[in-house]
Hints:
Layout (H helix, E strand, L loop, with lengths): L9 H13 L9 H8 L7 H13 L8
Helix pairs in contact: 1-2, 1-3, 2-3
Amino acid sequence: xxxxxxxxxxxxxxxxxxxxxxxxxxxxxxxxxxxxxxxxxxxxxxxxxxxxxxxxxxxxxxxxxxx
Length: 67
């Protein structure tokens, strides 16, 4: 986990989303807060960035968002 003051970049967020998705069974899901928590201990400030990256991934057909 990097220092909290450092904003996670899009690649780091994408990689963490994919890492978490690869670690669960088919048909299961992850929560954006789990991604943010894995990246930084003060995770709440990065939630909108995580959601934005996930939205981009969904628009590009890489993941499906179900909520």
